[in-house]
Design brief:
The protein is of the alpha+beta class. The chain is built from eight helices and eight strands.
Length: 259
Amino acid sequence: CTLLPFCTFKLEMVNALRRKPQKQSPLKIAAILLILVAVIFLVGDPFHPSASYLRSEEEEVDVVPEYSKKESIAKEDLVQEGRVFTFELGNLKGETTGSFTIRTRPSWAPLGVIQFHELVDSGFFDGCRFFRVVPNFVVQFGINGDPSIQSRWRKKIIKDDPVVTSNAQGTVTFATSGPNTRTSQLFINTNKKGNAFLDKQGFSPFAEVISGMESVDLINDEYKEKPNQGMIQNKGNVYLQQDFPNLSYIQRVKESSKL
């Protein structure tokens, strides 16, 4: 036990309660119980550590105010069914350009929609590479080419939304590293039959491609999953342009309309 004095004290308590009554003064037992109650009141139960001892370092981020703010905005945004954005793309297969348009769906995942709107409004996705492209599965992006910008967004963690619609072809979803870890990375489901197995894993779509899936299908899959995400986080587009020059990328994102 890491709390030796308390463990020893607890052992004495157990032994005291196991002894025959005639060998132990009732006053002494009462005094011991009073001391134990006082210790628990002042420093907490030493035999049952609080949940804070189990928190990982990645969770040591002050996101509670963000949660409260986003949840409040989310309730207001439910009265409208999202915004429409066009992603203009460069370096597609055949050295072509193209675009796709998505509509956000607050009724599907309100917290995810708010996070995405903030990312787009800040210009976050301009210049981002599609660093993970797995044919007939997903196209993943959302690590900024500037490590200093990416570092700030890694701290803007949001809670999960319940999954209310399936990861069908063309839906857009936040990538995660576990429960309640969404930040900026997204993927587009490209499987024609959908990726319904992701639903049970907590991946909640927040938007859908409403036009331009033919351009999504032209995103370069030459490198598959080879780009190292840690290197992208630390080196940004400098690393990608040097080692994976043919990656397709987002030239800019513009809002097509507001509802």
